[in-house]
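Hi V.,

You were right to ask for the full record rather than a summary. Here it is.
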Amino acid sequence: MPSGRLGPRDSPSRDSADHTGRGLFLQGPMHRSMPGPAFLEGETVDLHTITPDDAGFLERLINDESVRTDLGAYDPIHRHEEEEWVESVGDDGGVHLLLATDADPVGSISLKEPHETWGTAEIGYMVAPEHWGEGYCTEAVGLVAGYAFEERRLAKVYATVYEHNDGSRRVLEKNGFQKEGRHREEAFVDGERVDVLRYGLLAEEFEGR
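Predicted structure:
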């Protein structure tokens, strides 16, 4: 399944870095508290712990048509379902974080529970359409890859994307991920069969960047 938010719902994620989107219908006042503590800090984006206050943003994000199409999320996600997912964060052995810039949420990123024997883990992400092309997802993937290798001592992280998702592929390639394989006509998207590509990054490749 393509890469995206990975957790109890195990849905894929996306960033279409060079595409325009219709926005996330987030206009207007948003009465929400500050995000949780910053777990990983970057130059343009920080990765925060997810709190119950983030459920509304995440619900709107995953239901946005331009986002969910490349997530493989075909059913509507209701607020109570998103709140249940937020409450379950941490129970699945994975790491799930909110992307925020200047304390404003722009997306989410996940590192699935590592394979204990192999030392590998899957990464997934999604970003609000109005923030595509701003580099937030590229930096977030680099931060999570660094965390996986330097703090969790993993040997490899990987992701899967639809072949047509050029933005998400560029996010991975800019971080040194290598295309490792192709699952032919693996998925059904917008009325047609599409190939799913797998990308991987080894710890030594990350260290050599």
